[in-house]
Design brief:
By secondary structure, the protein is α+β, with helices and mostly antiparallel strands. The protein has one domain: Beta-grasp domain (Ubiquitin-like (UB roll)), CATH 3.10.20. Helices cover about 20% and strands about 25% of the residues. It contains 2 helices and 5 strands; from the N terminus they run E-E-H-H-E-E-E. It has a 5-stranded mixed β-sheet, with no helix packed on it. The radius of gyration is 12 Å and the shape is globular. The relative contact order is 0.25.
Length: about 90
């Protein structure tokens, strides 16, 4: 599958905005990404294996907070950081 990487996390992917990863769930894809790009998963998932509050994950056009969400090779997963401020 393809995974879109937000600009603040591209230092882990040598500035690549789109990378390939494998897995059948969002959690598995994040593990694969961490094998390829060490440290990336920790920026997305906390110590309790939950998405960090400021992170958003889209599978195709659908927002998910469930790491067990199924994915296929043809899906596109987008990692996004929520903006804050005022």
């Amino acid at each position: 599958m393809k995974v879109r990487i937000p600009t603040p996390l591209r230092s882990y992917t040598t500035q690549a905005a789109l990378v390939a990863a494998e897995g059948t769930t969002v959690a598995e894809v994040l593990v694969d990404l961490d094998l390829q790009f060490p440290g990336l998963r920790f920026r997305v998932v906390d110590e309790q294996c939950r998405l960090r509050p400021h992170m958003r994950v889209f599978v195709n056009e659908d927002l998910t907070r469930d790491l067990s969400t199924a994915v296929t090779d043809t899906d596109v997963m987008t990692l996004m950081q929520a903006l804050s401020g005022g």
